[in-house]
Structure formats: C-alpha cells, structure tokens
Specification:
With about 475 residues, this protein is α/β, with parallel strands linked by helices. The chain is built from 21 helices and 12 strands. About 50% of the residues lie in helices and about 10% in strands. The strands form 4 sheets. It has a 6-stranded parallel β-sheet with strand order 4-5-8-11-1-12. It has a two-stranded antiparallel sheet with strand order 2-3. A two-stranded antiparallel sheet has the order 6-7.
C-alpha cells in the first residue's frame, strides 16, 4: 500500500484519512487479503494457508487465529515444542500493514490523529512529548485545541524497533526491558522531562502501532509479566525512572510450551486468546514442510521421495508414542522432520554420493533424532539414546515400508487403474531390475520423473534406475489395503 505525502495533520485530516488502531489495521488487512484470494477462486481454507506461506498449520488453528485477531484479541499460541508456534507468530508480521502516518519527531510513532482528533485520542492517546509540543501547556491536554497545521506528518514504514518488537522469554528479561527508561543524565542536560531525547523506549513502546512478539511468555519473571499485563489492560506504559505514561497500542502475540503454561500470570493469561497448536496429523502437510522450509535450496544429490516420506513417517511414529520424558520433548518437533533430510544429505555429501544411499538415509535419520535429545548430566543421555535406538530398530523399517506403499500404490491406483494383473506383470519386470518399454513401463517411468522433486544432478534415466532399485528391495507389491 502506498500512502500520499501530507506535510501536516490538517492536510492529512482533510484528505479523508481514517485512523486505525493496530488491532483494527491488522483485522482490515486480513479481511482484505482473504476477500482478494477468494475472489481469485481459492477456497477459504486455501486462502487462509496463503496468508502464512512459510508455515504448515492445521486449518482449524489458522481459522481460530484469524478470527481472534479480527476480533481484536491478543494471542497466546501454546502446545508441544516444535509445532510451528513461533514460525506462525513471526509470519503475522509479514501480514501486518507496514506503512503508517506518524507525527514527525515523535519517539513512539504517534498517529497524527491522536494529537488532533478527540475521538481517536480517547482510544489511543498521544505521548507526553507530543502533548508538550502541541498542547497549550496548561491543564489537561485537549486535542481539539491543537493547531492541526502545526503538527508535522511523515510516512513511516514500520520495522524492528519501530512498530515491531520481539521478546525472548527468560529470567533475564526485567521490567525495564519492556517499559524502557528515562535517561536521567540527558534529563539533567536538557531539563525538559517531555523531550523525546530523554526516553529510551523499551519493547512495549517499540511495538506501538504494530506487533509485539513474545516467545515463551511463561519464562518471563512475574514482575515483567505484570508490566505486559498493564499495557494490555490500559494501553499505557510508564518507563522506569519516570512519572510520565506513554501509549502502548499494539497486537501482542505470545507463545508457550505446555510445561510453562502454569507459570503464566492468570490475569495476563485472561487477556490473551488461547489457541492450542498441536502437531499436524496430515502426512501430506508434514511432507510439504520440507519443500516450504528451503524452496530455493540447491540440491546436488538425488533424494528419493520414498526416503523423504519414510523420514516423515518416522517422526510421526515417534509423536504417536507420546513419550513423557522432558529430555525427549524436541524429538517429535517439526525441526526434526527438516533435520532428517538435511542430515541425510550431509552424510551423502561426505561420502561423495550422487544419490542418497540407504546407509546415509539411516544415519541421517538417526542423527536427526539423537540431535534433539536434550543433554543432561549423569547417565540420562545414554538411557534416552537406548530408547531412541529401540524405537528406530522397530520403526525405521516400518516407515520405509509405509513410504513404499504410498509411492507404489499411488502409481497403482492413479496410473494402472488398480489393475492387479498389470501391476503383477510390471512388478515381475522390476524384480529383474528393469522397467519394460511399452505402455505400463512408460507410465511408471513418467510417474517417477514427475513425482521425484529433489533430483540433484542425476539425469532422468538415472533417477528412474535408482527408484527402481529401491522398489526392487521391497518384497510385497500388493495394494489391497489403505495404509
């Protein structure tokens, strides 16, 4: 969106400008984007997913999130570790409207209408600096008495520190990290407590007009949580060492793992719309994470789709176990799915392989899962390694079998029209390590070329040959069951 330049608040007001709070601006943007996508023919579910192109999420979660945001709520995304909560929160910033009108010289990017419009001022007051600059100097600040032509206006593109603030929850985040402080040395030099040069904005004031992202909010000390609570309740912040209060109009999006939920102050939690983010149950969506995570990554090694699906099945199988061991909470995360692929490729690179071998794949999956064990003292790490070793021994072959079924049975139903005689004839040829020339052989060859996404530097014939080798390692080509 492009904004016209207006030199002062009077001209801005006369242009028909309609001021919006941060919540209203985001809600309007969401509504606008959704309508535009649906008008192009996308379904509602597809449109919601397209608002967050870098995150794979259950449509019900996206719907709940968008509904809460459009309703003006602040958000708490909570759930198991590694479900995409932080990624989803960060993508909201990409959706947020960035260009805004601000009072030129304001330390917290006030909307000019906060200074001159009594109605909007009652919703979002202006800062003490703007009150001092444009007010009459006596009594309560009255926006109706301000000379609008004296209020300079500029267009600002919101960015980190100016409309976007991030907080990583930890015991080291103190209240003044959020509130900011008044620099008493500068105050002594300048002598004016309302000067914008005195204020060193904290995260809450940096987020004014935009978005505040708080990762792992339950790890914040109680005093720091209370500062956030005041900002959400009253829309104001009082910097440390100051008697002045500043506007804090932002959308807060917080995250928490399950184990930290009880550490969140109840009054603060009451101010947040709680949205549970679980692991994705849909295998296809989990598979798509690999493509989304690195769409432009140069892949020099052929990574067969059967192995990719098997890697995803392994992590899904671990999730189904619901192992309640704190050190193993990250093993089932979305990050592990991505690691299984990157580690397997790394092993192949070290071995100078043009195509992922089963050995490299097996080592990559094992290392990816082991790498998510949270190290602790004593022999707990060794015990956890044993748990994972036992799991992989039983589940890696099963995952490979399931991946083979997905691959072969998709071909069987889609290309062979579920014809058992045709499949058996083709399977006999494959068992000899060849793909016959002719109709069904050509169908398989073309299916492989279309299906394989990470071909590396291999030519199509070599890709087909490698996939046939993997298919030939399987004993049963039957597709009588839906698996």
């Amino acid at each position: 969106m492009s904004l016209e330049n207006h030199s002062n608040a009077e001209k801005l007001r006369d242009s028909g400008y309609r001021p919006l709070t941060a919540q209203e601006a985001l809600a309007e943007k969401i509504n606008e984007r959704m309508h535009a996508l649906i008008a192009k023919g996308y379904t509602r579910e597809e449109a919601m997913g397209m608002l967050f192109p870098g995150t794979v999420m259950d449509p019900k979660v996206l719907e709940s999130l968008l509904a809460a945001l459009m309703g003006g709520s602040h958000i708490l995304l909570f759930g198991p570790s590694g479900t995409g909560k932080t990624s989803l929160a960060k993508e909201l910033w990409d959706l947020f409207p960035k260009k805004v009108y601000v009072v030129d010289g304001c330390p917290v990017q006030d909307d000019p209408m906060s200074v001159i419009d009594p109605s909007f001022h009652s919703k979002v007051r202006c800062c003490p600096s703007c009150e001092s600059r444009f007010g009459k100097g006596e009594g309560v600040f009255d926006p109706a008495s301000v000379d609008a032509s004296s209020v300079p206006v500029k267009v600002l593109e919101l960015r980190e520190g100016y409309g976007l603030a991030r907080v990583q929850g930890s015991s080291e985040v103190f209240p003044d990290n959020l509130t900011g402080i008044y620099n008493l040395h500068k105050l002594e030099e300048i002598g004016d407590p309302t000067s914008p040069l005195i204020l060193e904005p904290g995260k809450l004031l940096q987020a004014n007009r935009g978005l505040l992202l708080v990762d792992e909010v339950g790890k914040l000390p109680l005093g720091t949580q209370n500062v956030l609570l005041q900002a959400l309740q009253e829309g104001i912040v009082t910097p440390a060492k100051s008697r002045e209060t500043f506007p804090a109009s932002f959308v807060a999006v917080t995250t928490s793992n399950l184990k930290d939920l009880d550490a969140i102050n109840e009054p603060l939690n009451d101010r947040l719309s709680n949205i549970y983010v679980d692991y994705i149950k849909d295998h296809g969506k989990n598979r798509s994470m690999i493509d989304i995570a690195a769409p432009d990554r140069r892949v020099d090694i052929f990574f067969p789709e059967i192995y990719v699906h098997a890697a995803v099945f392994v992590v899904e199988a671990w999730r189904d176990l619901s192992v309640d061991i704190p050190e193993l909470t990250e093993v089932g995360s979305n990050r592990t799915i991505l690691d299984t692929v990157s580690r397997s490729m790394a092993f192949s690179i070290l071995r100078n392989e043009p195509s992922i071998s089963y050995t490299s794949f097996e080592n990559g999956v094992r290392d990816a899962l082991f790498g998510r064990i949270r190290a602790r003292g004593g022999d707990s790490f060794l015990r956890n390694e044993e748990i994972l070793n036992e799991f992989l021994e039983g589940n890696l072959p099963l995952a490979l079998e399931r991946a083979f079924r997905v691959y072969w049975c998709t071909f069987f139903r889609r290309e062979l029209s579920s014809s058992v005689p045709r499949a058996e004839k083709l399977a006999r040829s494959i068992s000899k390590g060849t793909v016959p020339k002719g109709e069904d052989g050509d169908l398989l060859r073309n299916f492989i070329i279309r299906t394989e996404r990470m071909k590396g530097q291999l030519k199509d014939d070599d890709v087909v040959s490698r996939v046939v080798d993997i298919l030939n390692s399987m004993e049963d080509f039957g597709c009588t069951e839906e698996r």
